[in-house]
Write a structure and sequence with these properties.
Layout lengths: L2 H34 L1 H4 L3 H52 L13 H51 L6 H32 L6 E5 H10 L8 E3 L7 E5 H18 L4 E7 L6 E8 L34 H11 L3 E6 L7 E8 L5
Parallel strand pairs: 2-4
Antiparallel strand pairs: 1-3, 4-5, 5-7, 6-7
Helix pairs in contact: 1-3, 4-5, 6-7, 7-8
């Protein structure tokens, strides 16, 4: 039972109890007074009964009016009480969506002002901490770029003379190259995430053909021979978006399939099933699929899901899918994961983006 309902019931029950007590006392006292003074006033039984009937009818009408007034007062009072709570709920939802500058407006009620001040202070502290963490990630990423570039240049020099090294040294060099590449990708991902947190991301929008974008992105990915199926209705579909970021979306999904989905991927472009103005870009893998309960968690930062170790790899810091969601959201789309529809083992990642020129 909600607060509004409890307040209404309190007013209505209170009005009924008060009316009932007044009805009983008034009717009882009136009847007793008439019976006591019956001889003195020369009243007949019929006249007394008629008078008591009129009093009873008046009291019933007064009871109904009292209950209705109590109901109206209850509605007004409940609205006044619940309105600040509704405002706090809306503010909390806005903060959960990332709008940390949301605050509650002060009121004339000292009791509510205590809640408002505590809520605003909490949000201010939360905003300060989030901004501090974002600045820390950005500063660390920038500081790491210089030594990383030096390290990468040194590795390039060593690679140019790889044939002069012993077999054991070549194996160590190959491991170093892989780790430097992985480290470089992690730093770039951290920088990209910090730009989102700072609100410094700007899209360089172009008109892009969905089919060409996906095919080019697949060819430049870690699995360039992945099959691509283009629905004929999407052959001329165009997107308004940032080519680099959308290509990164496809590349990250393919990297995820390579690392956690059995090492293979199948990409498809098709019209959205529930919208004539959106296109779906899907990437299917042949892994064990996403564990139930992980379908939202795997898109969080630094999270690879409970079943990540079962899906086969220890590489990755858990930023790839988080960046996919951020890039897609920036383009006004959405992304989710589901089971493969052909019944085979594996996961199906679907990116929905607004488009034009669907056949």
């Amino acid at each position: 039972m909600g607060v509004r309902t409890r307040i209404l019931l309190t007013f209505v029950v209170g009005a009924m109890v008060l009316s009932g007590v007044l009805f009983f006392l008034t009717y009882t006292l009136t009847r007793s007074n008439l019976r006591v003074r019956e001889g003195e006033l020369g009243l007949s039984d019929d006249l007394i009964n008629e008078t008591l009937g009129s009093v009873r009818a008046s009291l019933i009408l007064a009871t109904i009016i009292t209950v209705l007034v109590g109901l109206m007062l209850g509605i007004v009072s409940s609205e006044r009480v619940v309105r600040p709570l509704a405002g706090a709920a809306d503010a909390a939802r806005a903060i959960a969506d990332g709008r940390l500058d949301t605050r509650l407006e002060p009121t004339d009620d000292p009791d509510l002002n205590a809640l408002t001040d505590a809520f605003n202070d909490m949000v201010a502290r939360l905003q300060e901490r989030v901004e501090r963490d974002a600045r820390f990630a950005s500063d660390v990423s920038h500081e790491l770029r210089s030594p990383l570039m030096t390290l990468a240049a040194s590795v390039e020099v060593m690679l140019s003379r790889r044939d002069e090294l012993t077999e054991r040294s070549q194996a160590a060099l190959d491991l170093l190259v892989a780790d430097v590449a992985r480290f470089s990708g992690l730093v770039e991902d951290l920088l990209e995430i910090s730009r989102y947190d700072a609100g410094a991301v700007r899209l360089n929008r172009d008109t892009l053909r969905a089919s060409e974008l996906v095919e080019q992105s697949v060819r430049a990915s870690s699995l360039p021979r992945s099959p691509v199926h283009i629905d004929p209705r999407c052959a001329d579909a165009t997107l308004s978006g940032d080519r680099r970021r959308l290509a990164r979306v496809v590349a990250n999904l393919i990297d995820n399939a390579r690392s956690h989905g059995g090492g293979s991927a199948a990409v498809a472009v098709s019209p959205a099933e529930d919208s004539a103005s959106h296109v779906w870009i899907s990437v299917e893998d042949a892994g064990e699929g996403v564990v139930e309960g992980d379908s939202e968690r795997i898109f969080e930062r630094f999270s690879r899901g409970v079943g990540a170790s079962k899906r086969g790899a220890s590489e990755g810091a858990g930023l790839g899918l988080a960046l996919v969601r951020e890039h897609v959201r920036l383009h006004g789309g959405r992304v989710w994961v589901e089971r493969r529809r052909d019944g085979a083992s594996g996961a199906r990642f679907v990116v929905e983006l607004p488009c034009e020129s669907l056949n």
